[in-house]
Write a structure and sequence with these properties.
- The chain has 215 residues and is α/β, with parallel strands linked by helices.
- Helix content is 53%, strand content 13%.
- It has a five-stranded parallel β-sheet, sandwiched between helices.
- Helix 3 runs parallel beside helix 5 (99-112).
- The protein is globular, with a radius of gyration of 17 Å.
Length: 215
């Protein structure tokens, strides 16, 4: 079975930066590790063609089958920028799947998740967070994510429009994630958005048993 470390969080929370640096830290200490971007077309668990099935009724089973196949494929360490929640739970939430079904999916996922750790980069105030992030990322990034929210089934049903709807969508999604993680059986580590340091990643590597207590 593989060892997997999943960095999760809202868009702009820093999960890509943190996960890249975490993988680099492991490699610099002699740990064979690979890193994957959430939206990579050739993602080892959820490639582009699998994500395109997110509105199909059997999508949860597609995700579980892909996860099991991936876990059995080798024993290497893999650092993932958003998969456990972003490429699965987020789609289920956006498609208005019932909360009980989301919980059932996540519990079944955990049953397969041996040697897996979830790192969640929590945003304390999503509205303030996006005041900064939207200005940093620019209009093209903002329009792309606004459109995603507005066109999603939950966005259509709730009339999510513009910045207000965007913030509400991601605030509710984060709350769902935190509640799932609060009841999770797998190890969960919470770090603050934009407040973590490289030393925090070293501590994390020690805590999950990938590096010795003294670096």
């Amino acid at each position: 079975m593989r060892t997997t470390i999943h960095f999760e969080g809202l868009p702009g929370s820093g999960k890509t930066t943190a996960s890249k640096r975490f993988c680099r830290l492991l490699k610099s200490n002699g740990i064979g590790a690979s890193w994957w971007l959430e939206e990579a077309p050739n993602h080892p668990i959820m490639p582009q063609e699998a994500r395109a099935l997110s509105r199909e009724r059997d999508y949860p089973q597609v995700c579980l089958d892909a996860w099991l196949t991936f876990l059995k494929s080798s024993n290497s360490t893999v650092v993932l920028d958003g998969y456990a929640l972003q490429s699965t739970v987020r789609f289920l939430y956006a498609n208005r799947i019932a909360r009980t079904q989301i919980e059932d999916y996540f519990n079944r996922w955990q049953e397969l998740a041996h040697e897996t750790t979830l790192v969640y980069i929590s945003v304390e105030n999503p509205s303030q967070h996006y005041n900064v992030v939207l200005a940093e990322r620019g209009d093209e990034w903002s329009r792309k994510l606004y459109s995603y929210v507005e066109r999603s089934p939950i966005g259509v049903a709730n009339g999510y429009q513009g910045r207000t709807g965007f913030v509400e969508f991601w605030s509710n999604y984060q709350q769902l994630c935190l509640e799932l993680l609060d009841a999770a059986d797998v190890p969960v580590h919470l770090i603050g958005s934009r407040s973590w340091k490289d030393d925090d990643l070293k501590v994390l590597a020690v805590q999950v048993g990938l590096l010795p207590g003294r670096l």
